Task: structure prediction
Amino acid sequence: MLSTNERTRQLNGTCVGSVDMELFLHYSLIPSLFIILVLSFLQRREHRRQTDDTSYLLTNHFEIIIPLDFLGTFSNRWSYGIAFGATANKIMFLFSEGYQPLQIPQWAQAFVLLIGGIEVGLSHLPFFACLSSEFRLVSSILGFSYSLTWFAVTILHITQCPHGQFLGSYETLVFYWPTLLCLFFLLGYFLHLFVKSLRVHLGWELQTGEKPFLELHQAEHVKQLLKRRPLQEEKKSWFQTRIYEWDPCFQFPSRMIGTTVLAFICLYLFIVIEFCMFLYVRNELDVFEGKLESYLTSMNHTGTLTPIILQVKELMNVTKGVWVVTILPASLTCVSYLFHILACYRKHMKRLWAGNKHFLPLKFHNPSSSESVVAIARYSGWQIAYILWGYLIIHVVQSLGGVMFMYGLVLPVIHNRGLEVLQGLGIGILTISIVLGLMILQVWIATSFFLQPKMDTADKQKPLALNNRKVFHNFNYFLFFYNVLLGLGACLSRLLFSCILGTWLIARIDRTIMQSGYERADMGFRAWIGMLYVDHYHTNPVLVSFCHLLITGHRERRLQQAVQYGHLSQSSGARVSARSRTRWLLLQTLINNPRLVMLRKSKSGHGSQEFIQILLTCPES
Result:
C-alpha cells in the first residue's frame, strides 16, 4: 500500500493543467504593450522638441512612461517593492536558466537570457507604469485589471495542480504564495487608488499637489545641519547602540526597498528549491542504502566490505542530518546580511554627504562616471544573485563544519571513545596554548628589555627606541630558527582564516573580500561603490536644497514680473493687444540695455539704423 504522500506525488506526475505559466508569460506581452501605449499617449512631454523632429506630429502627447525613478523616488516605496516581489517567481525561473524557447548553441546562451530578462521586464512593466503614472484614474483601472488577470491565472494554476513530486501536498502553493500575496496587495492598492482618484474627479476631494522637488526628510536633514548641537547628547538604548537607530532625516530610495523585498522572496524560493533537491537526493540515497542493507543481510554481516559499508551508511546519515540542521543558521545569516546591507548603505551615504571618503579604498575616491551609471543597473540584480549564491556557499561550509564536529566529538562519544577524544583535544589545546604563550612571551621580553623607558608618565606605550642592542641581536639570532617553524603554522592559519572569512562574507556586496590593492577585481564591490556615488551626486540633501532654493527664487521673480507687467497693462484702462505689449516690453529692454541693439537681426536696413540712433541717444538707466 502506498502512503498518501507517495500517491499524491504519483498523481501530480501525470497532472497537466490547462494553464501554462510560461506560455501565459508570452501572451501577457499583448495587454502589457497595450497598457504601456495607453499611458504613454496620455503622458505629456514637458519640453517640446524642435520642429524638424517627426515627433511634432503627436503635438505634446506621447512620452515614453518610466516604470520607476531609480534615483529620486521616495514615495510609494513599499508599493514599488511589492511590485518587484510579484516578479520573484519569474526571476527564479531565469536564475535556474529554465528559459529555453529555442534550441540554440551554448555560446549564445547569454543572448537568450537577455531576451528572457527583457520579456519578464516587459510583462511586469504595467505594474510599475500604473504606479508611476500621473493619470491616477486610468492607471488604477488598468493596473487593477492587469493585476487581477495575473492573480486569477496564478490561482487557476495552483488549483489545477496543487501537489508536487518533491514536497508532496500543496507544493505549488508553497512556491506561489509570495507572488499571490504581492498581487493581492497590488489589487488592494489599485482599488484604493481608483476610489481616491474618482473622488477627486467628482470634486469631493482636493487633488494632491505635484511631487515636491525637495523631500521632507531631505529638508529636515539640512535643518539638523544648521542647528546647534546640544552640549550633552541624549543617551541611547542598547538596541540603538548595538543594532539599529531610526533616523527620521533619512529614507531609503525605492530601489533599495524593492531590492530588499525581492531578495527576501527569492531567498525563500531558493531555500525551497534547495530543500526539494535535498529530498530528491535523500530518496536516491535511501534506495542506495537499502541495497547496501540487503547486501549486508545476504552476507550475514560477515563480509570483508562490512566495515566500509557501515562507515558509508554512517556518513550518509550524518550528512543528511547536518544538512537539514544547517538550513536555519545559513538562512538567518543571509537574512541578517540583507538588513545589515541597508544599515551600511545609510552609514556610507551619510559619510559621503559629510565629505568623508576614508572608509573607501584609495582607488575608489574618484570612480569612473560611466561605470557608476552602469552600477545603478547592475546593483539590484547582483545583490540578489550574491545573496542566493552566498546562501548556498555558506550552507555548504556550515555543513562541512557540522560533519567535522560530528566526527570529531559526537560520534566518538557514541562509539565509547570519548576519553580518547578528550585526551587528543587536551593535547591539541595545550600545544596551541604553548605556541601562543611563546609568542606573547616574545612581546613581553621586547617590552621589558629592548625598549627605552617612557618619555612621559602620560604616554600609553614606550617609544620605538631600542635598548640593550647586544642582547637584542642575540635574541633575534636564536629565535630566527624557531620562527621559521612558527611561520609555517602562521601561514596555514592565514589561509584558513581567509577561506572562512571569504566564504562567510561572500554574500556581502558592500564589503570586498579581496586583499588591499586588489579591490578592483571585486566586481560586486565596484558596483556597490558606483551606486553609492550616483546616489550621492543626485540625492545629496544639501545639493537638492540648494537647487530647490534656486528654482523657488526663479519662480518668485517670474511671478513678480508677471504681476508688474499685468499691472502695467491694466493701468491705462484701454485694451492693449499682446503684440503691442510685447513691442513695448522689447523697447523698454533695449533702452535699458543699448548694447543688445547691435546684436538684433534687422529686417529693413534704413528703419533699423534710425532706430539704433534713437536708442543710442537715450541714457542708460
Summary: Residues 46-58 have pLDDT under 50 and may be disordered. The two ends are 107 Å apart (CA to CA). The chain has 21 helices and no strands.
